[in-house]
Amino acid sequence: MLFEVLLGEFLAPPLEATARAQKAFSKLNNVSFGGGGGAWVRDGDLILNVAGQSSERQFGSMQIFELSREHTLLALGHATHAVAGARGKWLLSDYRESRFKDDAVITRAPGQRLLESNVSAGFLGLAVEDPKQLTGRALWRLIRYFRSNSLDTREYVFAFWSRISRTVGVMFAVLLAIPFVLGSMRSAGAGTRMMFGLLIGIAFFLVQRLIESGTVVFQLNPVLLAWLPTALLALVTFILLARTR
């Protein structure tokens, strides 16, 4: 379990991110990690949508939605290129803006804009990641940020507790091997035991993916559902161990 924690928190995520970036950058000059819709991030009265990332601090097109305290749209801006600077400052290139005032729309000619935001390049890099590929520390930071902006955190809460439950599940997976050696399965061939163990592992994986989709779609409790596959694995393990005794 300790090895799994070290592997999942410190080794696998940066290697996975590096591999994905190298593969993408070798094919395209400007790559979107957030799919067709890009990454959506809220920072106070600003909503940012970034469609691509070409390096650690250089991003593709950025849309900026400025809202009032009454949640009405004040302005809509679009930049074809965004470069992250120090202390949350962004340099936007070819920036165009339409500002809504009373019954008029005031347009801004294309140019550069210096945007000050609490969203850093590092955080925006997290926002375009798959939650399942983030470390527990990164997920916890995202959960706190989303809660402070009254945003939906179910997907990230589920991913956070799912990482913990899968780590605990390693212990039950090891204990599950005991009935195969000492129980009624000991007389079966190695192929039969391997197939039975493989079916249990596939079932555990499919149940987890099914629960993950249900958590987001049906707005179910993410903490309880994150632990459900591990709880079922533990139940099967205890039943087989009891039969072995």
How would you describe this protein?
This protein is an alpha+beta fold and 245 residues long. Helix content is 50%, strand content 22%. The protein contains seven helices and eight strands. The protein has helices spanning 2-25, 121-127, 136-148, 154-175, 177-182, 190-217, 222-244; strands spanning 39-43, 46-50, 58-59, 62-67, 73-79, 81-84, 89-101, 104-116. Strands 1, 2, 3, 4, 5, 6, 7 and 8 form an eight-stranded antiparallel beta sheet that branches. Strand 6 (81-84) and strand 7 form a beta hairpin. 20% of the residues are buried.
SSE order and pairing:
Elements: H1 2-25, E1 39-43, E2 46-50, E3 58-59, E4 62-67, E5 73-79, E6 81-84, E7 89-101, E8 104-116, H2 121-127, H3 136-148, H4 154-175, H5 177-182, H6 190-217, H7 222-244
Antiparallel strand pairs: 1-2, 2-4, 3-6, 4-5, 5-7, 6-7, 7-8
List keywords for this structure.
eight-stranded antiparallel β-sheet, elongated, alpha+beta
Shape: elongated
Largest sheet: 8 strands, antiparallel
List SSEs in N-to-C order: HEEEEEEEEHHHHHH
Number of continuous helical runs: 7
Low-confidence stretches: 27-36
Instruction: Give the helix/strand class.
Output: alpha+beta
Query: Beta-strand percentage?
Result: 15-25%
Q: Gap between N and C termini, in Å?
A: 26 Å
Q: How many β-strand runs?
A: 8
Helix fraction bin: 40-55%
Radius of gyration: 24 Å
Whole-number mean pLDDT: 78
Give the quaternary arrangement of the chains. single chain
What is this structure, in a nutshell?
By secondary structure, this protein is α+β, with helices and mostly antiparallel strands. The chain has helices at 2-25, 121-127, 136-148, 154-175, 177-182, 190-217, 222-244; strands at 39-43, 46-50, 58-59, 62-67, 73-79, 81-84, 89-101, 104-116. The radius of gyration is 24 Å and the shape is elongated.
